[in-house]
Design goal:
two-stranded parallel sheet, 5 helices, DNA-binding
Length: about 100
DNA sequence: GGATTGACGTCTG
DNA sequence: GCAGACGCCAATC
């Protein structure tokens, strides 16, 4: 069994382009009792990694973790370049872009 | 080893 | 819809 944070990475890596998911969904999918663990795992994310952490937002669709990125502005641009409407650090039509890990 | 903090979510009022 | 309280686990001090 992988450490919980590696499972988080694995789920995030499976998020298709142009789609996003929430901390709670990842936590529920992995059986984590606390969604906060997902955020902690992403916080511990190595700087040189291919994990698209910018596709993970909170339940409101807000980019709550953008300040933790080395380049917060680039994070928004990535989402926009993937076809996701982002305004005021928030995703519009979140229910349209939301993605379930189970799939 | 106790207290604090944190990319959060859900329940209540 | 918004604000406050609680929960839950891991890392850090």
């Amino acid at each position: 069994m992988k450490p919980y944070y590696e499972q988080v990475y694995d789920v995030v890596l499976n998020i298709p382009q142009g789609r996003v998911t929430t901390y709670g969904r990842i936590a529920t999918y992995l059986g984590l009792s606390n969604p906060r663990m997902v955020g902690y795992a992403l916080k511990n994310l190595p700087m040189f990694s291919d994990v698209p952490a910018h596709r993970v937002v909170n339940s409101s669709g807000e980019l709550s973790g953008r300040l933790n990125f080395s380049l917060p502005t680039e994070m928004e641009e990535k989402l926009i370049s993937e076809g996701i409407s982002v305004t005021n650090h928030r995703i519009l039509r979140l229910d349209k872009y939301i993605w379930n890990p189970i799939h």
